[in-house]
Amino acid sequence: MTMMGKSKSSGRRTDWIFCLAAWTMTALISFQATPPGVAAAGKAEVKIDNFSFAPAALTVKSGTQITWTNGDDIPHTVVSNGPTFKSKVLATGETFTFTADKPGTYSYFCSIHPNMTGKVVVE
Ligand SMILES: [Cu+2]
Fold this sequence. Notes:
The protein is α/β, with parallel strands linked by helices. 19% of the residues lie in helices and 33% in strands. The strands form two sheets. The chain has a four-stranded mixed beta sheet with strand order 2-1-4-6, with no helix packed on it. A four-stranded mixed beta sheet has the order 3-8-7-5, with no helix packed on it. The chain is extended. The termini are far apart. Residues 32-40 have low confidence and may be disordered. The structure holds copper (II) ion. Copper (II) ion binds at residues 76, 110, 112-113, 116. The site of copper (II) ion has 5 residues, from loops.
């Protein structure tokens, strides 16, 4: 029975491991290079700080998962003008997530502080 050149395979194995290591490094670097708050890979973030939504106007692609995070010491809500989405009262550090499936413009506000407004445009 032949051994299918098994004793000569060490060079190929080294190549394979090098490829895997290079791929892993590339994946790690590209993951860390994504700055926070920038819509990438189907996710977007809105921070609630100092009685305002940031960014106040957000444009995303359909299917994007949007997460609001309350960075204030005061509770806030995220409520659309219409039935599209409505969060519970968010305490400090709590989040609300909405997946924007349908294209359109969605204005929203904080039901506790109605002068706090924002807008999501789904393309
Ligand atoms: Cu509020």
